Amino acid sequence: MDSEIQELRALLEDVSRLQRNLRHAERWQSERIAAVLPRHRDSARNLIHYAELRRHDIRDLQSALAKHGLSSLGRTESAVLNGVGTLARTLARLVAPTDLPHAATDPFDGEGLLARNAVNLLGPEPEDRGTRIMVTLPSEAASDPDIVLGMMERGMDLARINCAHDNPELWRQMVANIHAAEESTGGRCLVSMDLAGPKLRTGPVRPGPCVLRVKPVRNDTGAVTAPAHVWLGKQTGASPAVPVIPVLDENWAAALREGQKIVFDDARGAGRTLVVEEQAGPDGCLAVLHDTSYFIPGTRLHAVPDPSAERKARREEWPSTIVGDLPALEQCLMIHRGDTVILSSDLTPADSHTEGLHQIGCTLPGVFVNANPGERIWLDDGKIGGVITDVRDGELTAKIVSAAPRGSRLRAEKGINLPDTRLTVPALTEQDLADLEHVKELADIVSMSFVRSDADVRDLLRHLDAEADRNLDIMLKIGTVAAFEALPEILLELMKWADVGVMIARGDLAVEAGFERLAEVQEEILWLCEAAHIPVIWATQVLDTLARTGQPSRAEVTDAAMAQRAECVMLNKGPFINEAITMLAGILGRMKDHTQKKRSLLRRLRAWDHYPR
Questions:
Q1: Across the strands, what pairs with 445?
Q2: pLDDT at position 289 over 80
Q3: Secondary structure letter of residue 499 according to DSSP
Q4: Sheet harboring 357-361: ordered strands across?
Q5: Are the C-beta atoms of 302 and 315 separated by less than 8 Å?
Q6: For the chain, what percentages of helix, strand and coil (3-state, to nearest 5) are there?
Q7: Measuring CA to CA, how many Å separate 338 from each of 101, 344, 350, 357, 422?
Q8: Pairing state of beta strands 473-478 and 271-279?
Q9: Using one digit for the tens of pLDDT, what is the confidence trace for 518-527?
Q10: Average pLDDT in the chain
Q11: HSE of 126 in the Cβ direction (CA atoms, 13 Å)?
Q12: 56: Cβ–Cβ under 8 A, 6 or more apart, which residues?
């Protein structure tokens, strides 16, 4: 018994020392705490306490506490000083039951503050799940109200509009369709709009020929199992899944009849036949093709008047037209390990036929000022990796050390990540500031994309009026190593605004921090934001395979379940986005009864009711 008391006394001393460190950190950061809005002061104090707690390695202390059946401080994020204080009082009573207990700390409902902040930013918690769903709107949501309506009916709580795409008029139409869907469903859908930030991307690549290849579906033996479909006529009449062949004489296409044949020689001189499957009126018609064909501008299409004419008359006498303009084929650079890639400030389209040594433009001039030899570079979401070997006169040279075994394709407009480089470019571009005026008018939340430091947050706040823009909330996308390392300072600066949140941009983080560190980094962001009582949006590639192909992978279903610990989950766009929303809502609803943040909730499990008692 005496040895146990001695162990408890040692634990009390360690916990009391930790408690003093927390209070000292609070005093040391008192000015920064005082600078946040009054409604966030308790949260700022708790953030300081948590940051100080995590400056210490308390794993041995945790093991010793657990050995005695005491709290191991593993769930203290939302109320750190309270948790440590309660533990100190418990230890004091165990060591000396007759002595006066340590002074109690003030009651503090950190979980309540986080719940309040989540409702203020993201709207009320859905009835059937604890986590909201945000969905990125496609461009088509501006012209098709049913897209937005379908998303809301399946569980979308927030709609995301990316200002890197489309234009203010289309954004306005999207928002109008959101409001129309709200009226139809009786629900509420908040609008979040992303400012694009500086564009750090590859420059253009010289396009290939203007040619459209159309091929039927064949089985393993080469037999056609499904013909190819093409649309002859105007783009406006076509289904998104069917390639469009524009024709110069639209009246020719409108006059075609169901079952009528169209003959032509493709770009290779191969004779081919189209058959009209469906006549759709003045916009054109749907036709089928049983052989692989290559269409180019100028290809002449001959409409066979009737079956007998096909045998007797010459095609030159039949009604005909020619194929109009077709888009050029997108080209790419094929990059292999050991190759050299030069990024250039010259945005002249790159030559795609290079081997070993490649050059392509870079859209952000600041790269050539801030980058240094020895720093890492990643291209196209981490598919290609290298080490910078030289920087001079608007050129950056890198040796490629990571690429697919058979080479990786590098196309135009692909992301460039420099995780070791401290870029000094402004987080808000002139275009962002122009877009911000539209965001103020249309959105409930503005999302800042290129955050690296608390100075970037201050820059955004300078362009917002505390009174005129008080209904516009702020979300920060954390997607760089610099932002992750400066997150406590960033959150303290963010607390100078009323309703705020953080999005974990896991795609960029995976590239910047390394795929092997992503799980660790996203956990730490969740913990720190919980300590600051700031709601989190879990983003990037959630049920991405399902949204794109209609079939989820096992791994992403598990990932979606893990997302329940955030206050909101973001889905990206895709042809099967409605199915993804439905599945995500179901997963989150089931997980609501099992976990809350890091805490397991032990509801009754009926799966083992048959087990004998």
A1: 192, 473
A2: yes
A3: S
A4: 357-361, 340-344, 395-402, 384-392, 376-379, 416-417
A5: yes
A6: 40, 25, 40
A7: 67, 19, 20, 10, 26
A8: unpaired
A9: 888 999 999 9
A10: 91
A11: 26
A12: 18, 21
- Show the tokens assigned to 498: 């009323």
Q: Burial, 31: exposed, middle or buried (Cβ in 10 Å; 0-12, 13-18, 19+)?
A: exposed
pLDDT for 311: 60
- Tokens (6 digits) for 181: 């869907």
Q: Computed from CA positions of residues 401, 404, 406, 408, in that sequence, does the dihedral angle turn out positive or negative?
A: negative
Per-residue model confidence as pLDDT tens digits over 17-52: 999 999 999 999 999 999 999 999 999 999 999 999
Residues 434 and 413: beta-carbon distance below 8 Å? no
**Six-digit token string for 148:** 């937005």
As a whole number of angstroms, the distance between CA 542 and CA 594 comes to 20
| Residues in Cβ contact with 4 at an 8 Å cutoff, skipping those fewer than 6 apart | 68
Our measurement of the distance from residue 166's CA atom to the centroid of its chain's CA atoms, rounded to an integer in Å, reads 17
pLDDT score of 440: 97
| Confidence category of residue 450, pLDDT binned at 50, 70, 90 | confident
Asked whether 546 and 577 are in contact (CB, 8 A), the reply is no
- Judge whether residue 601 has pLDDT over 70: no
Q: How far, in Å, are 117, 246, 267, 329 from residue 232 at the CA level?
A: 54, 6, 17, 20
Over 201-254, what HEC string results?
A: EECCECCCCECEEECCEECCCCCEEECEEEEEECHHHCCCCCCEECECCHHHHH
Distance of alpha carbon 345 from alpha carbon 200, whole angstroms: 12
| 3 state SS of 153 | helix
Mean pLDDT of 61-66: 90
What's phi and psi for 500, nearest 5 deg?
-140, 160
Residue 420: CB partners within 8 Å, gap ≥ 6? 374, 375, 376
- C-alpha to C-alpha distance for 142 and 135, rounded to whole angstroms: 14
Going through 365-499 in order, the beta strands assigned E by DSSP cover 376-379, 384-392, 395-402, 408-410, 416-417, 445-448, 473-478
Q: Pick from 238, 279, 237, 262: which is nearest to 322 by CA?
A: 262
Question: Closest Cα partner for 459 from 484, 436, 479, 440?
Answer: 436
Label residue 106 by pLDDT band (50, 70, 90): low
State the Cα–Cα distance between residues 507 and 33, nearest whole angstrom: 32
Identity of residue 30 = S
Between strands 244-245 and 293-295, the pairing is unpaired
Residue 487 structure tokens: 């997150």
Residue pair 538/570 in contact by the 8 Å Cβ criterion: yes
Rounded to the nearest 5°, which phi and psi values hold at 403? -160, 170
How far apart CA 343 and CA 358 sit, in angstroms, is: 9
Residue 310 — pLDDT band, cuts 50, 70, 90?
low
> What is d(CA 521, CA 503) in angstroms, rounded to the nearest whole number?
13
Sign of CA dihedral 180, 181, 182, 184: positive
Q: Indicate the SS3 state at residue 123.
A: coil
Of the listed ranges 1-10, 101-110, 537-546, the one predicted with least confidence: 101-110
